[in-house]
Amino acid sequence: MSTEVIMPQMGESIAEGTITKWLIDVGETVERDQPLFEISTDKVDAEIPSPASGVLLEVKYPEGATVQVDAVVAVIGEAGEVPAETEGSADLAEKVREPKTTSAAKAVAAAGAIDEVTDQTDAVVEPEFADRVRKMSSPLVRRMAEEKEIDLSQVVGTGIHGRVTKSDLLKHLESRVGTPTTPAAMMAEVVAAPTAARRGQFMVPAFKEGDKVEIEPMSNIRKLTAAHMVYSKQTSAHVSTVFQMDLSRVAKVRNRAKEGFLRTHGTKLTYMPFVFKAVANALIANPKLNASIDGTNVVFKKDINLGMAVALDWGLLVPVIRNADGLNLVGLAKTANDLADRARRKKLAPGEVQGGTFTITNPGVFGSLFGTPIINQPQVAILGIGAIEKRPIVETDADGNDTIAIKHMSYFAITFDHRLIDGADADHFMIHIKQTLLEESWSELDPFL
Q: What are the pLDDT digits (tens) for 69-109?
């Protein structure tokens, strides 16, 4: 039996990838997990391993082709085997954008790399971006829809960015023949309602004739990020709350330990490992915030995988610290610094930007006091860390006397999905973080003091 090689998803907001190099030629033998081809997006450059051992029977896309996620890019089987025709291969134009002539090049401060800026005019005219993302579906789904005379734009998609899956189509067919609408379907319709309403909404033009403007097309990563943000706002009932956190104990321990920590482990000790540790502990105590919503079901995640937002020159990337609750401060510091460094050099593997269960973003490094971030779907909460700075704080002693103290303070803002999480749930979570940061001894750093 032959094995199909699928274009992997390279990140939470990535819907396609470019094949930069085939490492195995057709007819050559390849072992399972041996690098098969290289792929590149604006976020990640990576080698993709072979899913099976055998002979590379067929390569469906050439080097330089940009291919949608989940498309079959190659077939592996036994020597002499004739690969079966891949379902939907006839509509190749819908799956691939051939490489274009390079029109410019710009230097990027990422290990001295040079990125080529390619002409974005495609030989195949793509539909308007929002519709293309919303209607994204497999050839099987499109053929089923055509046979049943169904307009896919009327089907609520539960895949990434509203992708219509086979399951979505079958549910739609059931509703057409009189099957009662399920609570899950009702919720899906509510989620999709803003999109449907916006189609007929009057839009104020961005500029008018005669205005002095300069128009620049969005990059693919910016278009996909925009779609993901809009999708999240339409999906989750966003609510934010802000807590003031006392990091004085953390600051004291960190300042005393950071030089010895750097000498011993060769990596910096920032404030973030302390925050990661406090968040992981709080998620254990408050599992609702480490969950997702599936229709009217709550999916509680047993692993605590912390996404850490990394701001790059070309966009935003969220690498994932897996099983963060099982790491100490040293492990968290090493993992976080390594992920951030490789994110900036485009050296992350696809799996390192997937599977997050809770996200932390740190706009405070740019001076922001606090923000209200958008939830990273399908998660139900995201924590924003504001600037950590010295502030005058009123303290009351046991006798009721007030004094003013100078402390390291920060505003932590959590945005949560009110469909699942109530204000009290979010507050308990934040109080747990606050107590950990204020009361934890951080004794594991004693050797570096």
A: 889 999 999 887 776 664 444 444 444 444 433 333 333 33
How far does CA 188 lie from the centroid of its chain?
21
Q: Are 63 and 22 in contact (CB under 8 A)?
A: yes
Peptide bond into 378 cis (omega under 30): yes
Highest mean pLDDT among 49-53, 56-60, 69-73, 431-435: 431-435
Q: Which residue has the tokens 């920032």?
A: 270
What are the angstrom distances between the C-alpha of 182 and each of 150, 168, 172, 439?
20, 13, 11, 47
> Could you tell me if 340 and 298 are in contact, meaning their C-beta atoms sit under 8 angstroms apart?
no
Does residue 388 surpass a pLDDT of 90?
yes
pLDDT value of residue 163: 65
Higher pLDDT, 135 or 139: 139
> Among 372, 344, 422, 325, which residue's Cα sits nearest to residue 42?
344
Q: What is the dihedral of CA 248, 253, 255, 261, to 10 degrees?
A: -150
- Report phi then psi at 190, rounded to 5: -65, -40
Q: Which two tokens stand for residue 394?
A: 């009123």
State the pLDDT at residue 104.
31
**Catalytic residue numbers, as ranges:** 418, 422
Neighbours of 387 (CB within 10 A): 16
Q: Give dist(CA 72, CA 7) in Å, integer.
A: 6
Cβ-contact 344, 277 below 8 angstroms: no
Q: Which CATH class is domain 3-103?
A: mainly beta
Tell which wins on pLDDT, 242 or 151: 242
Residue 221: pLDDT band (50, 70, 90) is low
Q: Model pTM? A: 0.64
Please provide the distance, in angstroms rounded to a whole number, between the alpha carbons at the two ends of the chain: 60
Query: DSSP character for 279?
Result: H
CA distance 393 to 411: 13
Per-domain residue ranges of the chain:
3-103, 129-200+216-222, 239-448
- Domain 239-448 fold is Chloramphenicol Acetyltransferase (3.30.559)
Residue 210's region, left for phi above 0, alpha for psi from -120 to 50, else beta, is left
40 pLDDT above the threshold of 80: no
Interatomic CA distance for residues 302 and 349, integer angstroms? 23
Look up the CATH architecture of domain 129-200+216-222: Irregular (4.10)
